[in-house]
Amino acid sequence: MNKKLTLLVGGVLIAGIAVTYWNAQNAPTGHSMTPPDTSKISRGDAIVNVTLPAELSGTAKIGEVAFNAKCAACHGTNAAGKNGIGPPFIYKTYKPGHHGDAAFLSAARNGVRSHHWRFGNMPPVEGLTDADVKNIVTYIREVQRENGIN
Predict the structure, then answer these.
(1) Which of 2, 15, 136, 139 is most buried, most CB within 10 Å of its CB?
(2) Pick from 129, 138, 120: nearest CA to 74
(3) Are 80 and 46 a contacting pair, CB within 8 Å?
(4) What is the DSSP string of the chain?
(5) What mean pLDDT value characterizes the chain?
(6) Residues 95-108: pLDDT tens digits?
(7) pTM as predicted
(8) Is 22's pLDDT higher than 60?
């Protein structure tokens, strides 16, 4: 029985090493979420051009109002960003598969250390409920989809 157990453990160990090696060899290189060069954009100007949907859902309209009240000062009109101040949310870095909806809630509650953009840390946002953030995310996601960010 001990010989069978030893062979099983050895086989699992070899398989684990093989999978780890394969993953290391096939891992993507570089960071796919590199922000654009903003050196030719004046401080405070929009970082991206945003196309708005023809119509927003009711929840997104409520989210737009909350976004304009609490987020636009840093993240710009229509979430287009403000160079040197806050990044655009209508950008591939914030697509659902990279920054899920919960990331927005966490950022609003706790703030965020600067990690994609060099605009400094984001402080927590005072006066937003979880429902407010959910509405804001709905607004952002609808505008993202209109701009090909899915």
Answers:
(1) 136
(2) 120
(3) yes
(4) -HHHHHHHHHHHHHHHHHHHHHHHHTSPPS-TTPPPP-TTSPTTS-SS--PPPSS--HHHHHHHHHHHHHTHHHH-GGG--BTTTB--SSSGGGSTTTS-HHHHHHHHHH-B---SSSS-PBPPPTT--HHHHHHHHHHHHHHHHHTT--
(5) 88
(6) 999 999 999 999 99
(7) 0.77
(8) no
